[in-house]
Amino acid sequence: MFSPERPFCDWHLGGFDNAPAFLFDSLKSTHSLMKARAAAGEIVPGTLMVADTQTAGRGRHERTWDSPAGLNLYFNILIPLDGIPLASAPQITQVAALTFAEIFKGLQDDAHAQGLGNPNIGKVSVKWPNDILCGKHKFCGILAELVYIKKRESNGAQYSTAAKNIPAISMGVGINVNSSPGDYAHLGRSVTTLKDICGQRINREKLLQMLVANLERAVGQFRAFGIRPWVDAWKRMDQFIGARGTIVVNNHCTDQNRNSGEGAIKKTGSILDMQDDGSLLFKCDDGTVETVYSADLEI
User: Fold this and answer.
1) Preceding peptide of 129 cis, ω within 30°
2) What does the alpha-carbon distance between residue 213 and residue 13 come to, in Å, rounded to a whole number?
3) Residues 103-114: tens digit of each pLDDT
4) Model confidence pTM above 0.90
5) Longest dimension (CA), the chain
6) How far is CA 2 from CA 75, 116, 176, 200, 206, in A?
7) How far apart are CA 224 and CA 86, in angstroms?
């Protein structure tokens, strides 16, 4: 994993179930392109798209995701939902975050065993619902959206508009791999990178191969067993239960207004637990206890 990597154009990758992978030297956004091609019926479930740089990378709520060239990973995977109820589909982002975090934690442990890495940065963990942090410094973000893939006849012709299209999750992932924390000072928020965590450069191709393979296995396990195994994994990894935090509900804020809180409802209190269905149990300062299914959590 710490070996030198070959040129981006020579990477050998594949999606789920041998679906194709598409590599782009530069792209506005893998997420936007995946959505467009799915809607047009131009790709199949399991497709992987990877960019070496993005010119308009976005995170949740249209926040900027900086995408310097040749340093990090920016990719989208079109996750099939066969056998998974649509109501359970949002939990796939939690499955992905915990699956990826286990890999990153293994890299951190390997680096520490070699006497490398930043010993003061903290441990890799997942901040509910799906941000991956080291200590309190974010280095991996996940953005997922339900899309419908236009079905086509076996001869390539499109089905009629009455045909039922195929639901899938378009999951966009940005990982700060070989960049440096100082590259993100202009964002005004805590950011780190795998290179800082591990004290050495990471082979991005090998890392992405591992992430995709492990995620495909994890989605299969989720299909069979539901979210509960990953709730248990989160609790083993957790460093936030009992901590104070702020739940940001109906958050439409961007980089420009996130500090003002415009368009958001904020509730401050304490994190009690992650429940068996993946929701967060949160005690507000006014004494009420809420079950939170969808929100941002600020620590």
Assistant:
1) yes
2) 10
3) 999 999 999 999
4) no
5) 62
6) 20, 12, 15, 7, 9
7) 15
What the block records as the tokens of 100 is 């990826």
Q: In angstroms, rounded to a whole number, what is the distance separating the alpha carbons of residues 76 and 35? A: 10
Tokens of 101: 């975090």
Residue type at 223 in one-letter notation: R
Q: What angle do CA 149, 150, 152 make, to 5 degrees?
A: 125
Which residue in the block uniquely carries the two structure tokens 């009992």? 242
Is the CB of residue 194 less than 8 Å from the CB of residue 177? yes
Kindly report, residue by residue over 262-277, the tens digit of the pLDDT.
567 889 999 999 999 9
Encoded tokens for 38: 């799915």
Give the Cα separation of 281 and 179 in Å (integer).
Answer: 35
CA neighbor of 44 nearest in space, from 11, 76, 80, 96 = 80
Count of CB atoms situated within 10 Å of the CB of 19? 17
Tokens representing 280 are 């967060």
Structure tokens, 119: 């010993």
Q: How far apart are CA 120 and CA 253, in angstroms?
A: 32
